[in-house]
Amino acid sequence: MKRLTCWLVAGVLGLGVVGALASSAWAEEAKEKGKAEKEKKVTLEQVPAAVKATILKEAGENKVEEIEVETEEGREVYEAEWEVNGREVEVKVASDGTLVERETEVTLEQVPSAVKATILKEAGENKIEEIEEVVAGSKKSYEAEWKADGKETEVQVAADGKLLGKKVEEEGDDEDEKEEGEQKVTLDQVPAAVKATILKEAGENTVEEIEAETEDGREVYEAEWKVGGKEVEIKVASDGTLLKKEVESDEKEDDD
Length: 256
What we know:
Layout: E1 8-9, H1 16-21, E2 40-42, H2 49-59, E3 66-72, E4 75-84, E5 87-94, E6 99-106, H3 113-123, E7 128-136, E8 139-148, E9 151-158, E10 163-169, E11 183-185, H4 192-202, E12 209-215, E13 218-227, E14 230-237, E15 242-247
Antiparallel strand pairs: 1-10, 2-3, 3-4, 4-5, 5-6, 6-7, 7-8, 8-9, 9-10, 11-12, 12-13, 13-14, 14-15
């Protein structure tokens, strides 16, 4: 399922329920320019032995069609795809072989009744184009996609039917979309540990913008400034940990 760039997270910033249920899939709802620097296609023989073992175990007798490796929040992960009875399955595996996430294309009739009711309520009269079951650890959720008024719309629903989030994509305006609950803050409004990290990374450069948002159930802060005419953006956890750093180039590559 195509990832959109902006999620309207159901609930306020830092909502505990969202944190408990949202899957790591939402971490990929970053801006297009925030894609991993070293994302590339690889073969099964090129991945670490532990990763290969996990992929083969998950795929079973099905043919692995594609594998990509990328850096996500400072760690290397592998995404593998195949089909089962004509339906797409995708897994995300950490470099040590840990299964991070599994996405399976399903039908509306295959989801729990509470999930079906929420999806139908949100979709209204719009035709549902795709539904995926997302399993991350012990957490399970469902993502459904359709178009409404020409806009790509996707919702994430917990296994109990609770709406976790909703995102809407304006065609040709991906980078301008913002998450619900995402808000601009000042340097003095962020936690002390976050402020210290931002100031350390920015050095003598003026911090132009800071935004707070909930990502995978945790509060993160994104700060931007310019160095030599190039835009720099960092992502910092609430405890001050530097999660990602991106430096704009002609090809808008990351600098993790």
